[in-house]
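Input record (Table S2, row 438):
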Amino acid sequence: MAYFETVNKISYEGSRSTNPYAFKSYNPKEIIAGKTMEEHMRFSMAYWHTLTAGGADQFGAETAVRSWNNLSVLDKAKARAEAAFEFMEKMDLPFYCFHDVDIAPEGANLREFYKNIDTIVDILAQGMKTSGKKLLWNTANMFTNPRYVHGAGSTCNADVFAHAAAQVKKGLDVGKLLGSENYVFWGGREGYETLLNTDMGLEQDNIARLFHLAIDYAKEIGYEGQFLIEPKPKEPTKHQYDFDAATTIAFLQKYNLDKHFKLNLEGNHATLAGHTFEHEIRVARINGMLGSLDANQGDPLLGWDTDEFPVNIYDATLAMYEVLKNDGLGKGGINFDSKVRRPSFEPEDLFLGHIAGMDTYAKGLKVAAKLIEDRVFENFIDKRYSSFTEGVGADIVSGKATLASLADYALNNENPRPNESGRQEYLRAVLNQYIFAE
Ligand code: XLS
Ligand code: NI
Ligand code: NI
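Output record (D-xylose complex):
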């Protein structure tokens, strides 16, 4: 059965096309910097936004018009699982991602939840086999159900911790079965509202314990996916423990988890943390921790996680610049953790949103590849730091210099002043020039 009857397969028509249902920049087989665009991007559909969500917000009910709306709970889940493959096929998305609750109803208890998951996973496994689509990552939703009101790994209640562990165990079993390339932890409720009732030390120790249990179990069953943590500074709790990339890396190092984890970074989470997306990706990259990306963007006029489809070419260019400098995303990919706006309630909007995001990132890739090929920023930066390649600078870098030798040197070299401008405005203009030209 067709769930998206009004839309045909989206293909590349080039930058002059006026067909809304065509790619203008994303040309999957085109080679950029030695790889096809498809290989660079590893685009992925977020099951929750595309299939499960109905457009409800704090002030209003669901608006989305979907062909499965009138089905019973389990039939709806089955329909969505089938629709997933039609959508990925038509949209030319090679990967998808889901939380356990996105694909299957929780039922009356954990046993029923496991059973429902098994039913849907059968359909997904079949769909993956016939379509060749792959699971970029899966995760457990340990934040929506009221039992997680005080957290999952960070809960004050050991029974709830055990329940979270049971969800993670099932998630890894499913990941192994479907061959997910990554397993993600986003700490939905892993944070706190007030220190007056919170044992922060125990909460963080326990989150780390949950991660270690997951690593042990993955080893036991032979699950080979990469573990990822997705930082976010706020929402739903006031103080989220995985605030940003730097905070998360420090946490992973403290608990000897850094060899087992990388980061899944999200555009809107970066800006909520007061950073740019490229800042977060750079922090992960220089620490060897860049795992995967959740591509979306926030609205500067709204202070929350609006998860909009990414259309900002500057952000996409600088994000893809980092990805290229990282030599790709490895097992990761670019997942559209993006949702259509509530008033965009027609099924066609799901396609139009993905086209906008995929084209923006594809264009960003092309511009970034050209910038790197021409060594635009590299040459500038090399020159800017060249004082560290000779004389006293080389001694600092090599470790030969001591505080005393540097003091001696400084005494004979009064009033040092960097003699070159940072040229920010010029560099921004050059970036514009490359965006306009490519
Ligand atoms: C929420 C997060 C979530 C994760 C997966 O803000 O982005 O969707 O990607 O749990
Ligand atoms: Ni996300
Ligand atoms: Ni988010």
